[in-house]
UniProtKB/TrEMBL annotation:
It comes from the Bacteria. PANTHER family: DISULFIDE BOND FORMATION PROTEIN D, GLUTATHIONE S-TRANSFERASE KAPPA. InterPro entries: DSBA-like_thioredoxin_dom (IPR001853), Thioredoxin-like_sf (IPR036249). The keyword Metal-binding does not apply. The keyword Transmembrane does not apply. Transmembrane segments: none annotated. Residues 4-202 form the DSBA-like thioredoxin domain. This is DsbA family protein. Keywords: Disulfide bond, Oxidoreductase, Redox-active center, Signal. Pfam families: DSBA.
Length: 238
């Protein structure tokens, strides 16, 4: 199996289109495993102040990044003007990363991904403040996870420690940007690359490593051959 560690931040604009592409890739290939890893662009307010000079200076600059990310996004989903009109400071990474990690601890990687995507949608499309616990809870309630279980896990110290462990892992790999894919702990793809380009790289890794992207490879021939299959609980033979 090809293992992909997807380093991202909920507040990362280029992670929004990248997540959508990785979902398509995950649906296309059944011999890859995607693990979600935290990468904090602004863990706490002090990080923003150090990088931008003040909390207030973050949003105007980041909205410029949104313009580029919206061009990169295959569906151009960003509501840039809506965000410009909001009256809250651009959110830090910590609350939303903890929210996604809590979901992953409770329900596994698929649930993590659902909560992560809902949180990103809250920020980039709905223009809600994902630093606000009420918004985090709203996003979680829109997924299949037990809210009570998520809430209990979110409040545990181990959840923050798990996020910090991801940040340390990123440092050990030398990952310094989001989004980044680390593949089999040997290869890295940085930036919101196109689905086609990611697949080309995965195909090359698959060949080099001798690991198929799909568990079974079906060879097509020009020779017609009969077969029977089950479709909607009924036999279909041709």
């Amino acid at each position: 199996m090809i293992k992909i560690e997807f380093f991202h931040d909920v507040i990362c604009s280029f992670c929004f289109p990248m997540s959508a592409r990785m979902r398509k890739i995950a649906a296309k290939y059944n011999n890859i495993e995607i693990d979600h890893r935290s990468f904090a662009l602004g863990w706490e307010a002090e990080d923003f102040i150090r990088s931008f000079g003040s909390r207030e200076a973050v949003k105007p600059e980041v909205l410029g990044h949104w313009v580029q990310a919206n061009k990169n996004d295959d569906e151009h989903r960003f509501n840039i003007e809506g965000m410009r009109q909001t009256d809250f400071n651009f959110p830090i990474s910590k609350p939303a990363l903890k929210a996604a990690k809590a979901a992953g601890i409770v329900g596994g990687e698929a649930v993590y991904w659902d909560v992560f995507d809902r949180l990103q949608n809250k920020l980039f499309v709905e223009n809600k403040n994902i630093e606000d616990i009420a918004v985090l809870e709203e996003a979680v309630k829109e997924t299949s996870i037990s809210f009570a279980d998520w809430k209990a896990q979110f409040e545990k110290e181990e959840t923050e420690k798990a996020v910090l462990a991801d940040l340390q892992l990123a440092q050990s790999y030398g990952v310094n940007s989001a989004p980044t894919l680390v593949i089999n702990r040997k290869y890295a793809i940085t930036g919101a690359q196109s689905q086609e380009h990611i697949e080309e790289i995965l195909a090359k890794i698959s060949q080099d490593e001798g690991i198929p992207l799909n568990k079974l490879l079906t060879f097509k021939t020009d020779d017609p051959a009969g077969s029977c299959s089950i479709v909607d609980d009924k036999w279909q033979c041709d």
